[in-house]
Each structure stands twice: as structure tokens, then as C-alpha cells.
Design brief:
Blueprint lengths: L4 E5 L10 H9 L2 E2 L10 H13 L6 E6 L1 H13 L5 E5 L27 E6 L8 H11 L2 E4 L16 H12 L1
Parallel strand pairs: 1-2, 1-3, 3-4, 4-5, 5-6
Helix pairs in contact: 2-3
């Protein structure tokens, strides 16, 4: 179904078994980027690990699928390594500068407002506790991303009851097929 190498990159706390990322991984055999510390992550460590995963594949065939804190991770990774991968699907980017953002992370703020060196789609919800619609728009615009607003879907995680999130798979297929 997918011709690219898909790397799943969960956010803070990892993605549990009912999260769409985990369901996609199980259904399609996508590769999960396993971080060493899911609860108190350090940005430099996360981007080093991400680069190690990308290095195992032909970058031109890699699509990153990031959720929440992983979106900032991907932006920091792009800033540091400038690798021209195929694309990225950036879902529910957390605003690490917001007062609502959980404590315990190191080095993820400010969110890099740079043009990404690859095609990307950013997906937002209108009632996400971790990012306002205005900030999600700013991130997408800065990253050179297509912005997709899916309405009231909270943080677009397991609690959003999306199941395998078919609409997200369609966005991934668009990135895979371009």
C-alpha cells in the first residue's frame, strides 16, 4: 500500500496501543522511532536518535509521521541535519512555549519557525489543549506545510477515538504518492 519507508515518531509519553500511530504501525509494519526517555526528553537526544533511524534508509524514500512533541522534534532535526527526506506528516503540533505545555522537557522551545527542506502536511484540531489554532497556523506557514484543519478532535490522539484514523491515512498516501 505504501511505497515509502514510514517512520512513526510519537510525542511525549509515547503513543499507547489505541493511538492511531500504534494502530498504523501494527497494521502496516511502519517503523517506530524508539526514544530512550519518553517522560523527560531532551531535544538533542531525540534528534540524534531520529537521525540514526533516518540513516538506516534512503532519505529520499523516508516519510516521518510525527505527533505532538514529535513535530517540534522534526523541526529541530531538520534545522540541525537539513536532510531532504521525501516528506513529513506533522499531526497536532504541541506549542512547547505555551503555559499549558507539560513540564519536564528540555530544549524543545522555542519551536523552530523555519522552512522545512521537504514536503509536509500539518494537521490541527480547533480544540487542541496543547496548541491554539493561531499557533498551529504559524507553525504550518513557517514550515512551508500544507495545513489541514480537522475540526474538533482534541489532541488527535487515542482519547480522540479516531481508531485507525482513515482521513490521516489518506493524507499519508498523498505524501507517499507525490
Amino acid at each position: 500500500m505504501f511505497k515509502s519507508t514510514i517512520l512513526i515518531i510519537p510525542g511525549l509519553g509515547n503513543s499507547g496501543p489505541q493511538h492511531w500511530q500504534s494502530l498504523w504501525q501494527k497494521q502496516f509494519g511502519f517503523i517506530r522511532v524508539e526514544q530512550q526517555d519518553w517522560e523527560t526528553p531532551v531535544c538533542a537526544d531525540w534528534i540524534t536518535i531520529l537521525q540514526a533511524y533516518v540513516d538506516r534508509h534512503d532519505p529520499k524514500d523516508v516519510i516521518l509521521v510525527g505527533h505532538s512533541l514529535a513535530c517540534a522534534t522534526i523541526a529541530y532535526w531538520a534545522k540541525e541535519y537539513n536532510v531532504a527526506i521525501k516528506a513529513a506528516l506533522l499531526v497536532a503540533p504541541s506549542d512547547t512555549e505555551a503555559q499549558s505545555y507539560p513540564t519536564g522537557t528540555t530544549g524543545f522551545a522555542p519551536v523552530p519557525l523555519i522552512k522545512l527542506p521537504f514536503k509536509s502536511t500539518t494537521v490541527m484540531s480547533t480544540n487542541d489543549f496543547y496548541v491554539t489554532p493561531e499557533r498551529a497556523q504559524l507553525f504550518a506557514d513557517s514550515w512551508g506545510s500544507k495545513l489541514v484543519n480537522i475540526g474538533d478532535a482534541s489532541h488527535i490522539n487515542a482519547a480522540s477515538n479516531l481508531g485507525t484514523w482513515e482521513a490521516g491515512l489518506e493524507l499519508l498516501q498523498e505524501l507517499d504518492g507525490f
